[in-house]
Design goal:
7-stranded mixed beta sheet; Quinone Oxidoreductase, Chain A, domain 1; 6-stranded parallel beta sheet; 320 residues
């Protein structure tokens, strides 16, 4: 099958074979999305070699020998949670399945991803997609679930002032999810195109220069940059919540004394629950369609990545 392969920080189109594990389903990928993590992996954020990609919608076409009796899955459209757990380690027994000590992660760690014609996952990782949600919406399930995880990890009150730093594709999804809370929300934008799309989505935009020191109760940092983190610290009030949603290559300096003195709550969050994300898409209260920059055929995947890494580019999708 055709795939986008990463090795030694170099991308290539590669024909690879795919084996179906006895306890997993074979999924025909209908659409996949290039995300910031894919780009950071190319830069060397994590030492991964294999097929990139973890955001997808697909169709179950075959079942492994150990799950042949689960025929109700055949022909169904699905999305897939990206962490494949062992079920036996300490964290799995504690219910911390996304932190399984032996996990593989779709297109990120130890497991080939979805920028390909086919992929495989255990049935427990799959979630059915309602017929009312087209592929162009369903492919955003994973990042919307990651946005929903903010509510799982942090209690945010409707009365609080909330700032999202970063008006890229992920930040725009996060802002749409946070808006549902009814808080006083603002999104930091840099480029004219970002201000335009925020206006289209009816989200309040603000420039970094307009932010007052210690003015926000909750700050969500989505820029994957030290400058974004510094702005977040500037904007956050004492005892406020700093929610980090970025992963990127490199280290960051942090004045821990100021964190202690200001009694800040720093919360890292990543993967989130898929069913709520699908419900938000089904209700059309989160709209990712304006975020789609371009859809490329998989055969033009290298060109798609070149497009995705350009500053200001929104979501680039691949269709096998």
């Amino acid at each position: 099958m055709r795939s986008i392969w990463l090795e030694n920080n170099q991308l290539s189109l590669r024909e690879v074979s795919i084996d179906l594990p006895p306890d997993e389903a074979l999924i025909k990928v209908r659409m996949s999305g290039i995300c910031a993590t894919d780009v950071e992996l190319v830069k060397g954020y994590y030492p991964f070699a294999g097929i990139l990609g973890h955001e997808f919608v697909g169709e179950v076409i075959e079942l492994g020998d150990q799950i042949k009796d689960q025929t109700q899955w055949l022909g169904k459209r699905v999305v897939g949670e990206i962490n494949v757990r062992c079920g036996f380690c300490r964290n799995c027994r504690r219910g911390l399945v996304n932190h399984c000590e032996n996990r593989t992660v779709l297109g990120i760690a130890g497991r080939n991803g979805v920028h390909a014609e086919f992929t495989t996952l255990p049935l427990r990782n799959l979630v059915l997609v309602p017929d009312s949600i087209p592929d162009k919406l369903a492919v955003f399930t994973e990042p919307i679930a990651a946005a929903c995880e903010i509510f799982e990890k942090a209690h945010i009150k409707p009365s609080e002032r909330v700032l999202v730093i970063g008006a890229g594709k992920f930040g725009l999804l996060i802002a749409q999810v946070l808006r549902l809370l009814g808080s006083d929300l603002a999104v930091v934008a840099k480029h004219r195109s970002q201000f335009e799309i925020l206006e289209k989505l009816n989200l309040p935009a603000i420039s970094a220069e307009e932010i007052s020191k210690m003015d926000y109760d909750v700050v969500v940092e989505v820029t994957a940059s030290p400058a974004g983190f510094e702005l977040a610290r500037f904007a956050l009030r004492p005892e406020g919540k700093l929610i980090l949603k970025s992963t990127y290559k490199g280290n960051m300096e942090l004045n821990m004394s100021s964190v202690v003195v200001d009694e800040l709550h720093i919360i890292g969050t990543r993967c989130g629950p898929f069913p709520p994300a699908l419900r938000l898409l089904d209700m059309r209260v989160v709209n990712p369609l304006p975020l789609i920059e371009e859809v490329f055929p998989l055969k033009d995947g290298l060109e798609a990545f070149n497009k995705a890494i350009q500053p200001g580019t929104l979501k680039v999708l691949l269709k096998p």
